[in-house]
Design brief:
Chain lengths: 192, 185
C-alpha cells in the first residue's frame, strides 16, 4: 500500500471514534465550565482534575482489557449477567484500586500545594471529594465497561478495540459528573 | 504470561504504575492550577481542558495501537520511508487538523450558550488547532520512540506503548494548552 492509501484508511477508521470521544470530552468540559464557583471555593481542586480523569482510563481500561482477553481465551462466558467469580474479582480489584489511587492523588496534590505555598483546601476536604468522586465514577464505569465488553463480544465485535474509546468517553463524562456531585456534597457538609 | 485473578494479585501488578501515573498527573494538574485564573476568567478555555486532554490521548493511543498491530504482523520497519509509518503519521496530523478546530468551536459554543464566553470564537478555534497540531506531532514522536524502545527491549508493544503514549499525551495536552494560551490569549 502507498503512503496515501495507508493514511486514508487510518483516517477513515479513526475519525468516528475520535469524534464520539470529542463529544464526550466537550460534555465533560461543559460540566467543568459549570463548576467555576466550586473551583473558586475549593482551592486546589483544579490540580486534582487530570489525575481523577486519567486514573479512570488506567484502572478501568486495564479491567476492560483483562476481561476482553478472558473472553477471547474462553475463561469467562459472555452471559448477559456475568456470574463468573473472575469477573467480580476483576471488578472488585478495579474499584479498590480506582478509589485508593484517587485518594492518594488528593494527598499528593495537597502535599505539593502546601510545599509550594499555594492556596489549598484542607487535606480532609480534598481527600473526601476524591473518595466520593472515585466511588461514584467507579460504579458507573464498572457497569458500563462490563456491559459494553460483554455485549460487544456477543455481537461479534472485538472487545479490544471497544475498551479504549468507551473508557475514555464514559470516564470523561461520568468522571466529571461524579466530581461535581462529590464537590457539592462535601462542601455542603462543611468542607472547603 | 499467566493472568492473575485475585484482588491482591491484580493490585500488586497495577499499584506501582498507578502511583507513578498519579504523581505525573498531579504535575499536570499543577500546570492547570498555574493558569487557573485565566481558565476561570475565560470559560471557553475551561470547557476546552478535558476535551484537549482526551483527544490528545486518543490520537496517541490510536496511532500506537495501529503501529503495534503492524509491528506484530511484521509489516512495519523503523525507516522514515516506510509506507506504514509515514501513512499513519500523515493520518494523525490530518485527524488533528480535522477534529481540533471543531473541538475549539464546540467549546466556544458551549461557553457562549451557558453565558460565559468572553473570547472571540476565532481565538478559541486557533488555540485548539495550534495545540492540536503540536500534540499530533508530539504523539507521533512519543509513539515512535516508545515503539522502537519496546522493539529493542523485546517487550510487547501492546503492553508498553499504549499506556505510555496515552499518559504522556494526557499530560502534555495540558502543558501544550498552557503554552499556546500564553501566546495567543
Amino acid at each position: 500500500m502507498s503512503v496515501r492509501d495507508v493514511a486514508e484508511q487510518a483516517y477513515r477508521e479513526a475519525l468516528p471514534v475520535l469524534a464520539i470521544s470529542a463529544v464526550g470530552g466537550l460534555f465533560a468540559g461543559l460540566v467543568l465550565g459549570g463548576m467555576r464557583a466550586d473551583l473558586r471555593t475549593v482551592s486546589g481542586l483544579l490540580v486534582l482534575v487530570p489525575a481523577l480523569l486519567a486514573t479512570r482510563g488506567n484502572v478501568y481500561g486495564a479491567m476492560g482489557a483483562k476481561l476482553s482477553t478472558a473472553l477471547h481465551q474462553g475463561l469467562v462466558e459472555p452471559k448477559p449477567v456475568p456470574d463468573d467469580r473472575r469477573v467480580y474479582t476483576a471488578v472488585a480489584a478495579a474499584m479498590l484500586n480506582g478509589v485508593a489511587i484517587s485518594v492518594f492523588a488528593a494527598g499528593v496534590a495537597y502535599a505539593v500545594l502546601v510545599a509550594l505555598a499555594r492556596p489549598t483546601a484542607s487535606l480532609a476536604t480534598l481527600a473526601a471529594i476524591a473518595l466520593v468522586a472515585g466511588i461514584l465514577s467507579g460504579i458507573a464505569l464498572t457497569i458500563i465497561v462490563v456491559a459494553v465488553v460483554f455485549a460487544g463480544y456477543r455481537r461479534g465485535l472485538n472487545p479490544d478495540t471497544l475498551v479504549g474509546p468507551v473508557v475514555t468517553t464514559t470516564g470523561d463524562v461520568f468522571g466529571m459528573a461524579a466530581l461535581l456531585v462529590a464537590v457539592r456534597l462535601v462542601v455542603s457538609l462543611g468542607g472547603g | 504470561m499467566q493472568a492473575t485473578w485475585t484482588v491482591r494479585g491484580i493490585t500488586r501488578a497495577m499499584a506501582p504504575l498507578l502511583v507513578v501515573l498519579a504523581v505525573v498527573e498531579v504535575g499536570s494538574g499543577l500546570v492547570l492550577d498555574t493558569f487557573g485564573a485565566q481558565l476561570l476568567r475565560y470559560p471557553s478555555l475551561l470547557v476546552l481542558v478535558p476535551v484537549m486532554i482526551g483527544t490528545a490521548g486518543n490520537l496517541g493511543s490510536i496511532l500506537a495501537a495501529r503501529l503495534s498491530t503492524a509491528f506484530h504482523l511484521g509489516t512495519l520497519s523503523f525507516d522514515p520511508a516506510d509506507d506504514e509509518l509515514a501513512g499513519n503519521a500523515v493520518a494523525t496530523v490530518a485527524l488533528a487538523a480535522t477534529v481540533f478546530p471543531l473541538v475549539g468551536a464546540g467549546a466556544w459554543l458551549l461557553a457562549f450558550l451557558t453565558g460565559g464566553s468572553e473570547l472571540f470564537v476565532g481565538t478559541v478555534v486557533a488555540v485548539a488547532l495550534v495545540s492540536g497540531l503540536a500534540l499530533a506531532v508530539i504523539a507521533i514522536v512519543v509513539t515512535l520512540v516508545s515503539a522502537y524502545a519496546a522493539y529493542r527491549f523485546e517487550l510487547d508493544p501492546d503492553d508498553v506503548v499504549i499506556p505510555v503514549v496515552t499518559n504522556v499525551c494526557d499530560v502534555l495536552g495540558v502543558v501544550v494548552l498552557f503554552l499556546v494560551v500564553q501566546v495567543l490569549v
